[in-house]
Amino acid sequence: MVSNSDVIAYIAKKDEHEELIPRTKVKEYGNTALQPVFFDDELGKRLFYSWVCRALELGVKRISKSYLLGGCSWTLNEIRLDIYTFNDSINDRFIKNLLEETTRLLSQQLRAEKVEKNDLLQILKEKSEVLIYEVVKDNDSREFMIVKDDGNVSVCLDTCVEQSYDEAVLEYVNQSMVHWRGDEKSFLLTRLHIRAFPSKKAKDSQAELEREYSLRDHVILGRELDLFLTDPSVGAGLILWAPNGAIVRKLMEEFEYKLHLRHGYQPVVTPHLATSELFETSGHLSYYRENMYVFDHDGKTHVVKPMNCPFHILIFKRKKWSYKELPVRYFEFGTVYRYERAGTLHGLTRVRGLTQDDSHIFLRPDQIQEEIGRLLDLLRLMYSSYGINNYSFKLSLRDPNNQSKYIGSAELWEKAEKALEEALINHGIPFKKEYGEAAFYGPKIDIYLKDSLGDRKCCGTIQLDFNLPERFNITYVDQDNKEKRVVIIHRALIGSIERFLGILLEYYAGRLPLWLAPVQVALLPVDEHSEEQRSYTLRMREELINNGIRAEAMMEGRLQARVREARKLRIPLIVVIGEKELRTEEFEAQWIKYGVDEKGRYKPVEEKITVRGIRGLVEWIKEEVGRETHGIIK
RNA sequence: GCCGCCGUAGCUCAGCGGGUAGAGCGCCGGCCUUGUAAGCCGGAGGUCGCGGGUUCGAAACCCGCCGGCGGCUCCA
Predict the structure, then answer these.
(1) Each residue of A501-513: pLDDT tens digit?
(2) Which nucleotides on chain B have any atom < 7 A from a protein Cβ?
(3) Of A149, A169, A201, which one is at a domain's C-terminal end?
(4) pTM metric for this prediction
């Protein structure tokens, strides 16, 4: 692919080896095939940002010898420079000087060099860089790359390639405070958020991308499409669903409900409250209390449910089960409430009241592998109906150094962790292992989706649990007539309607597929004053609605203005009804779908479809909806 | 929860070294034979997030609370 993005470095391929080489040393590799690394590539950003971090750190030291470096990191959009300023506050002049100094350093030919860990620690000690000293000390590497300037040193913990830029653009964004090493009890560092580009051109194309992001912001889209709102008198993180949003939710529920019934699940319905006894048995009150809403009534403590599992377990427990009857799969759109700290809330993607597509599967240990396989298949089917294909898997395991966070024996945990890992491997699914990410009752497979800014958000989750079956003492009768312990799989495929819909809106820039659109068809008479056209439009609307299609007649005002309005509301089908259509009963609908241009920017795809009569339109829509949902919704 | 920023009409925002509110869109009314992304004219609409303080006087300054955004942390 041809890119006009800035070149950061080159990759030289020699035999099997790949080596990163600086632009300035290209000549030394005369005959070797060189592959450029662009700023637009993930690797390019990493190399560039990492180098700018070095220059920033050295820039800080040039301005103030008394500030301590606390490290420099980056996201896809910005660099964060952490410094400890003692009691100083950062003023505008410091920032201006820092950016000038750093820009100057970037234009110089700074050298990177290798040092042994012990030598580096010695240098840092001499320079009194006590924070960086700690970081290096705790790092397992034996060698580090450092950049020196004016007797100061900046340590690179990432891939280090020498660079220089005559036209680099640095921009101050804002500042915030962060705790040293993310520890809330620790002291605060000043974090400067800085954006950096190798050239003005790169900066401009970034600005364009950002316009695109704001276009996809699900909070803004929620307002524009009139889907949901919040109100301080209800409380933060509690969503009010307006009719359009309620329709989308209901569609998601209907779709999943039908899909689950087809896949061997049975519906259950459970209350939102329980006495604390239930959640004491489950262990939630010991391990999850800080997230729970707890209140007293009639001298008894009650809780608003933060999870559905204990309820499903009680339903399962109502009778004795034969080994032949397992697995039993209970399914519920369970609305749960969790106290999430105020600063973490955001739109639909992080809320306090959420509805999970929750299921608990009760099975024999020998059925685990197969069931996880079925779940992974179901997950793929479901996501593809939503048009989502880019998701990744994470295996969340317990923190081996902090066992007190979890219930159950180490033996059970090992068994559970191994079972999940094997299921993923057997299914050929790539995944990442992470320690300390498990639920308190068991390890899990988490499914991550990217939001419009590229941040990963956990949606689906498949959790294996040997612990709650013990706490609730649930068993089945095996072939040998002995009672055996069941295993529970907790799972939510889209996770929660709220978060998933938030991500869906960003993914589609608000242009949901036909089957999910709150209004599917806009009917527009050409002449708002023509009685004939008006009454035909209304009749058409009625007939569509009677066929389960969500149609709206837009009658008032100029046609062009109404077309614009229908487009703004992201209505997928726009049908204009004029004299010609009344005469021929042949309709043309403008079908507008989500699409992207070559740069990944939202660009609707338009198609004209022609149908005979109202019947023809009804059939066309039903067919398309059936196609999108794999025949689940017709 | 912690740190920083922010909160003016339904929406987007202007006004803010103190003298008690403005625009565009939307909404309502009227006019125009109106074929695929904004016709024209008029009108209504605001305890300036809430509570307290300073002041002769606060949307503006100070304090507290609520809510939002960006980080930290946490998570579906």
Answers:
(1) 999 999 899 999 9
(2) 1-5, 7, 11-12, 26, 32-39, 66-76
(3) A201
(4) 0.84
| Nucleic strand B contact set for A 568-587 (CB, < 7 Å) | 568, 574, 576, 578-581
DSSP reduced 3-state for A15: coil
A80-94, A450-464, A475-489: which range is least confident on average?
A: A80-94
| Strand, helix or coil for residue A422 | helix
Q: Which domain holds residue A392?
A: 219-507
Residue at shortest CA–C1' distance from B33? A527
pLDDT in tens, A411-427: 888 888 888 998 889 88
**Higher model confidence: residue A456 or residue A231?**
A231
Distance, CA of A347 to C1' of B3, in Å: 21
Is residue A379 exposed (0-12), middle (13-18) or buried (19+ Cβ within 10 Å)?
A: buried
A454 touches strand B (CB under 7 A): no
Residue A356 designated active-site: yes
Chain A 161-190 contacts with nucleic strand B (CB below 7 A): 174-179, 182, 184, 188
Residue A206 lies inside a defined structural domain of this protein: no
Q: Is the CB of A559 under 7 A from strand B?
A: yes
The β-bridge relationship of strands A391-397 and A431-435 is parallel
Domain boundary residue among A201, A236, A256? A201
- Measure CA to C1' and name the residue nearest B69: A346
Give the whole-angstrom CA distance, residue A488 versus residue A329. 10
Judge if A171 and A260 occupy the same domain.
Answer: no
Please tell me which residue in A23, A80, A284, A338 is annotated as part of the active site.
Answer: A338
Give tens-digit pLDDT for A130-179.
889 988 988 888 999 999 998 899 999 888 888 989 888 887 776 676 77
Q: Within A40-108, where are the H helices?
A: 42-63, 92-107
Quote the tokens at residue A22. 């600086």
CA dist., res. A447 & res. A438, Å (int): 13
Work out how many domains chain A is built from and give that number: 3
Quick check: is A208 in a domain?
A: no
Q: Does residue A634 belong to any structural domain of this protein?
A: no
CATH number (domain holding residue A258): 3.30.930.10
For residue A323, being part of any structural domain is answered with yes
- Whether A530 and A400 share a structural domain: no
- Cα separation, A462 vs A447, in Å, equals 8
Task: Indicate if CB(A225) is under 7 A from strand B.
Answer: no
A297-345 pLDDT tens trace: 888 999 999 999 999 999 999 999 999 999 999 999 999 999 998 888 9
Q: Say whether A357 is catalytic.
A: no
